Amino acid sequence: MNQQQAKHGQLGDQRVPGYNLVDEPWLTVRPVGGGPPVQVGIAGALARAHEFEGLVVEFSTQLPAVLRQVLLPVVADATGAPQNPGEKGERLTRESGGFTKDELGSLETYLADHRAKFDLFDPAAPFGQVAGLRTAKDETKGSAALVATAASGNNVPLFGTRTDADPLDLTPAQAAHWLVHAHCWDTAAIKTGVVGDDQVKAGKTTGNPTGPLGQLGVIIPTGRTLYETLLLNLPLTPPDNLGLPQWKRGPHGPAWQPRAAEGLLDLWTWQARRIRLIPHQDEAGQLKVARVVISAGDRLTPMPEQEPHTAWTFTAPAKKSASALPERRPRRHTQGKAVWRGLEALLTPTRQGPDGGFETSILLDQISALQEDDRLPADYPLQVETFGMVYGTQSAIVEDVIHDAIPLPLLALQQDSEAQLLLLDVAEQAERLAQAVSNLSADLRRAAGTDPIPWDKGQRPGELLLHTLDPLVRRLLAGVCTAGADDEALERGRLAWEQLAHRQAWDVANTLLLAAPATTFGGRTISQGGKAGKTQTYRLGTAGANFRRRLDEILPRYADAVREAAAARAAETGPALDHDPGADFDD
Question: Could you give the C-alpha distances from 557 to 429, 493, 560, 563, in angstroms and in order?
Answer without folding.
Answer: 12, 11, 5, 10
